[in-house]
Structure formats: C-alpha cells, structure tokens
Amino acid sequence: MKILFISHSFPPVIGGVENQNFLLSKALRRSASVRIIKNTRGKIWLPIFVPLTFLKAFFLMSHYDVCLLGSGILAPLGSALSFFHPKKKFFCVTHALDVIFAEKKGWLSKVYKAINIPSLQKMDKLFMVGNATIHEAIKLGISKKKCKFIPNGINKNELKEKHVRKELSQIFGKNIKDKKVILRLGRFVPHKGTSWFIENVMPKLPEKVVMIAAGGRVAKNTAGDKDDFINSEKAILKNKLKDRVRLCPAIPQKDLKILLNTVDLVVSPNLKIPGSMEGFGINAIEAGVCERIVFVSNIEGLLDAVKDGKNGKLIKSGDAQAWINEIKKVIKLKKSTLEKRGKEAGKYVEKNYSWKKIAKKYLKEMK
Question: Which CATH number fits domain 2-150: 2.130.10.10, 3.40.50.2000, 3.20.20.370, 3.40.1350.10?
C-alpha cells in the first residue's frame, strides 16, 4: 500500500498529537510505502501550510492509494482532495479535540462546526483514538459506520530505561530518596485535574508523599483548553505544599524518561469539564510500559487506556476521598509487591498497545 500521510503538527513541536503522528507514521513505514507532508513549525504556520500542502498533495495523490490525515483539523483539505481524486481513499485520525471543539463557545468554533464536521463526514473512514470520541462524534451527526476505534500505541524501547532516585531528586530540587513520589503527566489544563488533585488530595496524604506535575502550558489566546498552571500554583501556596509539590511546565525528554522510570505512582485525576475531554490517556500507557503503578479517573478515553487490575486502577472522578484511600493503600505496599505489579502492567501494555500491533490495525482498516 502506498500512503500519503499529512500531519498538521509534527515534531520537533512537542505535544500528544505531534508524538502520535510521528510514531504512527514510523510504524506504518515498516509495512507500507509512506510519504509524509508535515508541518514542523507549529500552529502559527498553518495558514501557509494548508494551501501549500493542497497544491503539493493535488499532484502527488495520483501516485498513492490512500491519503491519511493526522487530525480532524485537516478534514477540509482531505474533502477538497477527494473531490479531485474520487477513486482514491481518504482517512483521518480523529482526536478528542477534533470533535468537541465544535461545541465550544465563540465564532471560531462555529466556523469549525460548519466546515470541519461535514468534512469529517466525507472521509471514507475515521480512526477515533477513543470510544468516548466516537460517542461525541455521533452526537454531532457523524455516522457511526465511519468511526473505528484504534487506540494510541507505545514503543517500550523508547521509554523504558534504567535510572536511579538520585536523578529524580535532582529534578525535584532536594533529596527525596526516602519519599513516595507521585507523578502527574499532561498539559496544565482544567480537565486534567492537576490543580484539583493538589488542592483536594495532596494535603490529606502523609508528609512522606511528594508530587511532581510535568507538562506543557497553554499559550494565551490559544483556541481550545484554558491554562490551569496558575491555579496549580495557587493551590500549592494555599495548602502550604511548597516543599512537597513541584511543577515542571517545560521538561526535556531526558528528564521525562527519568520520571517515568523512577517514581512510585503515576496519576491521571481527570475531571469532567464541559467542552473538554480526554481522548485516550497516552500518559497512562507510557507509565505502564515503564512498569509504574497507575491510577486514573474512570471517565472518557482513560477507560480505553487502562483496564482495571491489568495495567492500572480506575478511581471515581472527582471523589477526593476515594483517591486518598487508594493512594494510602499503595504507599504501604512492600517494594517487591510494587515491582511485581509494575512488571505485570508493563507486560499487559506491551502486549496490547505496541505500535507494531496498532499499525497493523490501521493497515487492515485501510485495506
């Protein structure tokens, strides 16, 4: 199969969609001929990238069997190309924000709903990263028959490494060798629940429990989710957690790997926030493949990423006491027990979410 892969956002730009598009294209190349047209300059370059890409793809499509779009933002581009190449097949990876952005307030969302949602409907098939995303798409009038759930994947050899707690202490800024360390990975946005966790859970945990929250911040005047970093800072000051909580808004990849391979527990305490949603929960399987204990909220795309008792534990979203109780239980476990559970989670994730397996699902559906 010859695939023309078009990505609106690609590394070195940092983000979940960027990483997903990169790893998917890399995995597909093992079994198919793939040419990538990619935007590596961020969202500011989109007004130039889209028309230039249309002209380039217009001529290239005659040499390819299918066109795979990296996100729903490019659906109008795919719709236009399909008009000129009716015998070719057009597919689109569809993330949560690709769908729910149409329900947000503001003129930009209205334009998106009028143009992008009908364009998604014109694709031959939509590869949804979560079942919750399919549910939201159907509410907007997109046919269920066009939607196929395919989860995000993971490459163990790109994340699993040997690191020591001394390295973790250096990131935290003081010696935490004898502490129990909780990690929250993900952008600082309201639905990720970071500020809620700092405010409602951390103050009720023993002093030996510390936390690191790492992820990107949302720039001002950016369409989509709002920045929640300031609320996290306020929660730290209000609850006198300055010595127990660290916020890392711009952490390098090498430090991210240290965190994933040394902390005791990784949490995703997501909340239901109107207009926002967790499409899948890639951080949960990243932590799992690094053999970490994982706790996540029992909502949205996290239900696709974590199978209770297999690679993590589902906890009621927004129930602070439930989170406190479960964390207190796990920090009392012996080191050998934690390591055993971590290894079991790692095996489960590698078996079910490897990019090699996920890429085969994409190819099967496109064929």
Answer: 3.40.50.2000
